[in-house]
Amino acid sequence: MSTDAGKSYKFNIQNGVVTGVSEIENGYLKVERVDANETWSVQGNQVVKTEYDDGRIETTTYTDPDGDGFYVKASEVKTLSGTGVVTSFESHGDDDGHVDASHNTSDEGNNDTDHTGDTDHTGTTSVEHAATATATAQHDESKTGGSGTASDDHPDEVSDGDDGYEYHHTTESDHELHGSELHDSVLDGALGDDQLHGGTRNDVMDGDDGSDTLDGNDGDDILVGGGENDRGHNHLNGGSGDDVLVAGGSKTQSLDDFLNANPVLSTALTNDAKYASLSTLVKGAVDDSGGGAMNTFELDSGNGHDLIFNFHASSDKLEIHRGLNGSDIEDTASLLRHVDVSGDRVTIDLGNGNSVTLVGIDVEHMSEANLAWI
Ligand SMILES: [Ca+2]
Ligand SMILES: [Ca+2]
Ligand SMILES: [Ca+2]
Ligand SMILES: [Ca+2]
Fold first, then answer.
1. What pTM, to 2 d.p., does this model score?
2. DSSP state of 83
3. Cα–Cα nearest to 297, from 263, 346, 228, 341
4. Residue 71 carries which DSSP code?
5. Higher pLDDT, 299 or 255
6. Residues lying with their CB under 5 A of ligand 4, a single-atom ion
């Protein structure tokens, strides 16, 4: 959160146990009380705080990139207690221990051991996602992908979950589903080529196999092109709001590295029935090839702060509207002026307070072939 800007932390660590916490803010050191609802642990060179608050588990990771004993907050993941549903995922940038409270953007600092404290990043791109505010513990709808054949009766079934979501399913091939304007929706594609249109609320959409078109519309949405066996050509557009977009096709090595470094996120994605394709993807084998899937992520004006996961440098593309947000982004050269690379993350400032961050990607193999322009 922005209130964390300007803060760093010092930990007393004895025999691998955190025995004291101090917070340094604007040069002042303050000894923090360790509340009963929080536990601290040392994991490698990271310190992890787990806090239970109002039904939520908040896991905060602190890193000390330059080894000077002053830690900074690297990431913060909130999940619903008992369900593992991620309600908020946030990475904080601070590569070299200094923070500038006057900025509200910075590059991502999570897991950036190879980051060399580079030069011109301007603050903190804090990407925050709060799409899934409710639990799905009771929802045991296990998406099988179906047979791909049309169902006789209700190809477009709608049901109210007891989790606040309205569930839209289809067992019919090449179907079109529309989310609700009143409720958060789950749009569940089948094996064919589906068109999934989110409503204005926070939707969860999963294309599954086939060449799917996913349009999140307003709200903070989660869009998944398909699982690890997806061979489709998927087109994903989060729309406005802060969306999480996941490429269909095989799991990349760098995504796996990222998930391993963020087990809370991995567990949440694996457990939640709403992410059926993603769950198989998380558990699947690493194969950077993409397996023949092609995913296109369309970026237009006012996209908010989107996160893209499982981007395959071999086959996936960002499709960028020229001059979006009134920016000077017109081609590769102008785009590169807006790109900030931090470890296996690439953040592009798309202008006017909008950005996209590709998380856990194979930066070395990215090329112009990963860009398309419209
Ligand atoms: Ca599909
Ligand atoms: Ca698909
Ligand atoms: Ca939506
Ligand atoms: Ca968006």
1. 0.64
2. T
3. 346
4. B
5. 299
6. 238, 241, 243, 303-304, 306
